[in-house]
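S.,

As promised, the fe (ii) ion run. Input:
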Amino acid sequence: MFDNMRYVVLLVLVMVWQYSCVNAQHIIHLADLSEEQHEINPYLSTKVPDRIMLSWSGDPATSQSVTWRTDGSVLNSYGQIARLTAMPPEAGDIKDISGSYKSLVWVSDLSHYHTVRFEGLEPGTWYLYRVGDGEHWSEWNRFRTASQVPYNFSFIYMGDAQNDIREYWSHVIRGATMNAAGARFILFAGDLVLSSGGDYSWGEWFEGAGWIFRTIPTIPASGNSDHIRLGDPEIDTRLLYPQYLLNFDTPGNGPIGFDDLIYYVDYQGVRFISLYSNFESIEPGKLVLIDHERVVTEDIIHIQTEWLESVLRNNPNKYTVAVFHHPVHSARKDRENDRLREAWKPLFERYSVDLVLQGHDHLYARGQIGERGPVYMISHAGPKMGNLDETGVALHWTSKTGENMQMWQEIEVLEDHLLVTAFKEDGVVYDKFKIVKDTSGNISLIELQTK
Ligand SMILES: [Fe+2]
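Predicted complex:
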C-alpha cells in the first residue's frame, strides 16, 4: 500500500503529465530523466523509417503487424505488401495498406511511431513488404506467415540484453539468428534495455539487431529494466519506457486495462503467454508506473492471475509456454519472487504448462519441479553476469546451471516433444534436453548428452 506522501507525489506527476499530453501521446521532459540519461542521443529519428519491428496483433497464420519510427514531420503511415516471388514485385502485385501513428516527445525531439497491420494473408507463405509515408520508404523486407498445420517449427528465446547492448549484445543476437536459421520468431524475457539508458538504449537495441527485427517477429515480455528511472527527488519512480509500448503491436487479448502488456499468441500448436511480473519491483519507497494513467499495485497480480487461469483453462493447443521476467524460482541469493510464485505456480502445474521462460538473474538455470510442473528456465544474453547460489536456492530446483556466459536458446516444437538447446555465445552447445508430455498432462524432462 502507498502512504499519503506517495499518493501526493503521484497525483502531482499525473496532473503535470496530463497537462503535457494535450498534443502528444507520450512526453518525456529533460527534468524527468536521471543524470546519466542526459547524454547526447545519436539515434534521433529522421523522415526515413527506422526501428522497424514485426510483431503480432492477430493470427500469425493470416496477419502481420509492422511498427516503425520516423520524425514528427511524417504524418502518413503506409505499408505495401506482395507475395515473395523470384522477381521484384510489380505494381499490380502490390497491395497498399494505411496505418496510424502515435507521438513521443523525448526531451525536445518529436517522433512518430507508426503501425500497419497486414491482414487476410495466406498461411505458410512468404511475403515482401515495405513501410513509409509514400515518399520515404524502407527497403523491401520479407516475412513468413505461420502454417495452419501444427508443430515442426523453432523459435529463439533470449534473456536480458540490458546493458552495453551495442558493444556486447549485437553479436549474440546475430549469432543466434544465423545459428537458428529458420527460427520463426524471437521471444524476449524482459530487460531488453537499460533503465538508465534512455532512448539511446533503444537505439542500441535496434542497431544490434539490424535487419533481424524487420524479418523475424518478436514476442516480448517487459522487465524491471525496461522501466526508465525518473529523476524524481522525492521517491524512486520507474516508468515503463513509452518506447516499449510503441515498438510492439500486441494482440490486445489480455486483461482489461493491461491488454497492451499482457497477451497470448497461438502459433502452430503452442500457446505463448506473455506476463507482466514487474509488480515484484513494488516495495516501500518505490513507485512503478506503466504510463501516466496506470500505477502498478498489487491489484495487477490478481487481475493477471484470473486472466491467466482463463487462458490456460480454455486452451486448445497441446503445448503452453509462459514468458515473463522475474523467475518463479531464483538461482541467486535473496532474489526470490514470492508474490508471483504464490499466484502463478499452482496454475502452471494445474494446467500442465510445459515451459516457463524467464530472465533477471543474469545466469543460466533450469529444472523441473513436480510431476505436472513445467520446466523453468532462466537465461540471459547480455554481458552483465550474476553469481549462482549453488549451495542455497539453486540446489533445490535446478538440474543444470551455468554462469559467466552470454547465451541464447533454440526451442524446436515437434509433435511428440519440445527440444531445447542452450548455446553459449561462441555457438557451443551448453545444454540440451527434451520435454515430453503424456496424455494425462504429466511432463518429463529428458536429459540429452552435450559435449
Ligand atoms: Fe531484471
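The two ends are 51 Å apart (CA to CA). The first strand starts at residue 26 and ends at 28.

- D.
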